[in-house]
Specification:
The protein is α+β, with helices and mostly antiparallel strands and 144 residues long. It has 4 helices and 5 strands; from the N terminus they run βααβββαβα. α1 packs across α2. The longest helix is centred in the first third of the chain and has 15 residues.
């Protein structure tokens, strides 16, 4: 397995992974167009850092997000992590997160923060990695 920073040309290569995972495992309705837009928005954001995991030159997973500056720290906001659905349960997501954490720490991040679905699968995955609910923040939203 090899890790490398994602390039713009990699977006088309990871779109099938994203669509397969979210449309099959999460009951989504992602199209090529909406998936491209989502991934490109994160990839092209200022201070983005996107990591690709490949095996024999083929993408098997990726993680993407961006650095966010606060008054006293730089945080890394993880926007997406996707592992090929056929390879889940093999520890690839854990290894991808550990490599991402190592790299963003070396680049100056003091913490990684993310939004996750509140279900058993996500609680178990992120919990094993040491992630905890933020007690001082609440996600707010308003439907328009």
């Amino acid at each position: 397995m090899d890790y490398r920073v994602m390039e713009e040309a990699d977006i088309d290569r990871v779109i099938p992974l994203y669509m397969e995972y979210y449309n099959t495992k999460e009951d989504g309705c992602w199209t090529y167009e909406t998936t491209f837009r989502r991934i490109h928005q994160v990839w092209s954001r200022e201070d983005a850092y996107c990591l690709l995991l490949e095996k024999d030159g083929a993408p098997v997973g990726f993680a993407m997000g961006y650095f966010e500056q606060f008054d006293d720290i730089s945080a890394y906001d993880l926007a997406e992590i996707v592992v090929d659905g056929r390879r889940q349960g093999q520890g690839l997501g854990t290894r991808l997160m550990e490599e991402l954490e190592r790299r963003v720490k070396a680049l100056g991040a003091s913490m990684v923060q993310l939004l996750a679905v509140r279900d058993e699968k996500h609680e178990r995955f992120y919990g094993r990695l040491g992630y905890q609910d933020a007690g001082n923040l609440a996600l707010k939203g308003k439907w328009l």
